[in-house]
Design goal:
- By secondary structure, the protein is an alpha/beta fold.
- The chain has one domain: 3-Layer(aba) Sandwich (Rossmann fold), CATH 3.40.50.
- The chain contains 5 helices and 12 strands.
- The protein has an 8-stranded mixed sheet, with helices on both faces. The protein has a two-stranded antiparallel sheet with strand order 2-3. A two-stranded antiparallel sheet has the order 7-8.
- The longest helix is centred in the C-terminal third of the chain and has 13 residues.
- The two termini are 26 Å apart.
- The site of cytidine-5'-triphosphate (CTP) has 14 residues, from helix 3 and strand 9.
């Protein structure tokens, strides 16, 4: 319905969004992952589409449907996410890292199903690549780069630290100590930080919050 269409402030712009969890395999039937539902990333994709952007949605395994019109790229592991991010980021005006990337993966992935043995099992994990930092440090055609930070304490200092250390342009901080907000919820509240300013987005539905985040982002493109 054209009558209700919001101003197409992102017409001609391409936004790449990562969403959902990653899965880090242990053997052919097992993995390490987290509770990310993908709802926030998918809401951002929908908001960007609504404002006229071309949207690439690089997504880990989730149960929700991608918004119509998004170019969905399915990934499982952090390494696969990095590969796709480095393909799409240089073709994008903005990149939003909303995926809950597993910080570690198995040092060795067993080629056969692991058999149960003693009373204890020790796994050696190795650090995953930092996808958003890699994107933010692309030398040619670097997109405007936005990260997320889900924190249970010291939200402001941790989020600002990530903004600086990862070389981001903007970070959306999520206080996940408040029950019912953030992970796997339909509601969220965020504080947006740039190097020299900040903006509070009070509790509302993930779709309302997503639209506000995308509108803020659009001002910088
Ligand atoms: N991120 C990423 N690659 C990783 C880890 C995180 O791209 N290997 C991105 C997330 O998508 C998010 C931002 O970095 O946009 C912050 O993620 P977060 O988990 O809060 O930060 P970490 O740097 O992993 O620090 P920690 O988990 O120790 O707080
Ligand atoms: Ca992390």
């Amino acid at each position: 319905c054209v009558e209700n269409q919001p101003p197409q402030i992102l017409a001609g712009k391409t936004i790449t969004i990562t969403a959902g969890p990653t899965r880090e395999p242990l053997d052919p039937v097992r993995f390490i992952s987290n509770h990310s539902s993908g709802k926030m990333g998918y809401a951002l994709a929908e908001a960007a589409l609504l404002l006229g952007a071309n949207v690439n949605l690089i997504s880990g395994p989730v149960t929700i449907k991608a918004p119509i019109g998004a170019n969905l790229i399915n990934i499982e592991s952090a390494e696969q996410l990095l590969n796709e991010a480095l393909v799409y980021a240089p073709q994008s005006d903005a990149f939003i890292g909303c995926a809950a990337v597993a910080d570690y993966r198995a040092g060795e992935v067993a080629t056969q199903k692991m058999k149960k043995q003693g009373d204890e099992l020790t796994l050696t994990l190795v650090k995953n690549p930092d996808v958003i930092a890699a994107v933010a440090n692309i030398e040619k055609n670097r997109p405007y780069t936005v990260g997320f930070a889900a924190e249970t304490q010291n939200v402001e200092s941790y989020a600002k630290g990530k903004l600086v250390n990862k070389n981001l342009d903007m970070i959306c901080a999520n206080d996940v100590s408040q029950s019912g907000l953030g992970f796997n919820s339909d509601q969220n509240a965020l504080t947006l930080y740039w190097q020299n300013k900040q903006l509070e987005l009070p509790v509302s539905s993930k779709s309302t919050i997503a639209l506000k985040v995308i509108e803020q982002l659009a001002k910088h493109l």
